[in-house]
Task: structure prediction
Amino acid sequence: MTYRILLIHGPNLDLLGDREPSHYGTMKLEEINARMERIAEQQGALLRALQSNSEGALIDAIHDARLWADGIVINPGAYTHYSYALRDALAAVRLPAVEVHLSNVHAREEFRRISVIAPVVTGTVAGLGWRGYAAALEALLGLLADGREGQS
Result:
């Protein structure tokens, strides 16, 4: 089966490569998306990537995903820490989702250690740079495959 995955990048991630490279690395978002598309293709999955600085656009994309996607990989950016609206959207669509953070949020400022998203996602990957996206995708595809096998 070909799984369809929505890859969401939240606010300020369009500045990757330029923004605080000591925390977020030097790779541009376009390169991360290209690598993720290749990885998805190698795994037999289809990936649709979206970045927005607008909370509403991210929520709309999550709502839309319930009509076509099998799962979500999401880096909510700063919305991680306070967007109950994003949290509620993820809970409402009931798609398996993996939260990703490029930096190790647990080793940074206190406010970054709190995720209102974590309770409604399947898992979280943090601190692995762009590879965290790859790890999240691989884990999500594995979980989807396990769930399908369990239903057979």
Observations:
- Helices lie at 21-24, 29-42, 55-65, 84-93, 131-151.
